[in-house]
Amino acid sequence: MVDYCAGYERLSRLWQKRFPQQWFDHHYEALQHAPEQQIRTLLDFCELPFDPACLAFHQTPRTVLTFSSAQVRQPLRRDTARAALYGDKLAPLRSRLQQAGLLSTDR
After folding, report:
1. How far apart are CA 50 and CA 60, in angstroms?
2. CA distance 15 to 30
3. What is the average pLDDT value for the chain, to the nearest integer?
4. What is the Cα–Cα distance from 45 to 25, expressed in whole angstroms?
5. What is the mean pLDDT of residues 19-42?
6. 98 has pLDDT over 80
7. Is the pTM of this model over 0.90?
8. CA 20 to 30 Å from 59, out of 9, 15, 25, 95?
């Protein structure tokens, strides 16, 4: 899994370097903290108008045919407490990600 993440990071840096004007770097934590601001920033980047429905995505009646269909019916998760349940089990992975420079040590 660490090798996959490292490859993904290398490819991401390559495309960001080659096409900086077409690259949008998104951080989920920022979206959690300030959803409207982050959504507006993304839409501005894509040259799309803001629609208040973007803030109520979970209330859309349309059919969603993806594996995340259950998630899109829920509001944006603002807590990360559930991740703590897996802390000990993920420690070896977290350590390897840090060694590879893919995860900051302040997490």
Report:
1. 16
2. 22
3. 87
4. 11
5. 92
6. yes
7. no
8. 25
